[in-house]
Amino acid sequence: MARCQAIKPNGERCKIEAIPDAEWCWSHHPDYEQARRRRASKAGKRGGRGRPQAELSNIKGRLSDLADDVLEGRQDKGVAAVTSQVLNVYLRAVSVELKAREQLELVERLEALEEALEQRKGERRYRA
């Protein structure tokens, strides 16, 4: 495979392999400029995959502490029950947020695959 012919802003040549039958990689190919801009506009607007894990660990710790406090008599059972219900609702919200994020990522991947398929429609493939 040929290397991408693009020159990066620092003056170095791109080291990524070029797309078949093209002289640029996906990151530098002019046909993919719109897709790159769409993805870049979403960058930083969504949390990373680590955020829900950190929130879940935090809530698990709080629920564990709450259970210990109830069992040792430091917390009223009624207050603990309501607190655990609120934390459960929060857990559900985190779960829904994670599912929505995964769905959006799948849509983005599907769009990228559709774009690649569209690019290949005009190409002829010969197999030996």
Please name the defining characteristics of this protein.
128 residues, 60% helix
List the SSEs and their pairings.
Layout: H1 33-42, H2 50-71, H3 77-121
Average pLDDT rating:
83
Spatial shape: elongated
**Biggest sheet record:** none
Number of strands: 0
Percentage of residues assigned to helices: 55-70%
Number of helices: 3
- Classify the beta-strand content into a percent band: under 5%
Q: What letter string, H or E per element, gives the SSE order?
A: HHH
The gyration radius over C-alpha positions equals 25 Å
In terms of per-residue confidence, which ranges show pLDDT below 50 for 5 or more consecutive residues?
none
Structural class of the secondary elements?
mainly alpha
Tell me the span between the first and last alpha carbons: 18 Å
**Count of distinct structural domains:** 2
How would you describe the overall organization of this protein?
- The protein is mostly helical and 128 residues long.
- The protein has two domains: 32 residues, no CATH class; 76 residues.
- It is 60% helix and 0% strand.
- Helix 2 runs antiparallel to helix 3.
- The protein is elongated and about 70 Å long.
- The model has no long low-confidence stretch (mean pLDDT 83).
Brief digest:
The chain is mainly α. 60% of the residues lie in helices and 0% in strands.
